[in-house]
Amino acid sequence: MPSPTDRSRILCSGLSSELLAQCAAVLADVASVEPLAEESLVPTAPSALGFDALIVALAPPLSESMARFSQLRRAYPVVPLLVLAAGVDGNFAVELLKCGAEDFLMLPPDPDALLRKVRRLLGEATGPAFDTPEFAAFRPRAFDVNQRHCFRVHVPPDFAVSSTFPGPIERALDVKDLSIETEPSPGSVQPGGMQIAAERAMARRLPFDQWQRRREIEVIVQLPSGSPIKTRARVLPGLRPAADGSIRFALEYWVSRPAEKERFRRYWVEAQRRARRGQRL
Hints:
Blueprint: E1 8-13, H1 17-26, E2 31-35, E3 53-57, H2 62-75, E4 81-85, H3 90-98, E5 103-106, H4 111-121, E6 150-154, E7 162-164, E8 173-181, E9 190-198, H5 200-203, H6 208-213, E10 217-222, E11 229-235, E12 240-241, E13 247-255, H7 258-280
Parallel strand pairs: 1-2, 1-3, 3-4, 4-5
Antiparallel strand pairs: 6-8, 7-8, 7-10, 8-9, 9-13, 10-11, 11-13, 12-13
């Protein structure tokens, strides 16, 4: 068993003393489990949170529990969050994920499922969210699966792309994969998608909540060559911890000038070529 200093720390809200003890016993090998203090609801020092994940239990009346859930999501926009609830259907669980929960588990929690989902939240395991069998028909698209007419390409380290967002942080963030629309879309804009990585400390300083409230923001994209490209973008809900310790988030972007569309297309073609060449080596 890891020493106490090696284990992750998980704070819980809305759990009964019995449920808190059950979770602590199941997760003893991977994390310490503690109740969330009321005064911790709005952190005064986001860069020093001191914990790694949140577990929130919903209970009747659900309106009050959902208000608490929303407060926690706003207060801790980067911290992975698992919701526990009983007597809800798949549609309700899907809405929870849309509202910012990373994963969901029915009450009473199955110990194996609880352990698997928490290890996934902490970046110690991979696998899909929302994998409860009875909710299979409601399973939303995976975070990194684009179901439009797009094809994604991973950004090679030697052919890097970066993006700069509006706000107090001017540091460019790494683009991990990029997609372009492969079929004409209505109007003059042509949407695509990106998955962005930010170091955890940096991510805690980024105004995700502000970005997601806006319909569009301006994002400056720097391809390996040429001048920066101004795009219009929409940051999609949901943050995910990656195995390398970074925080990943996704956005849709639009460019309208034909020359800029062509630059993205040429980059995508060259990145695919490099990926195929790397597979043959």
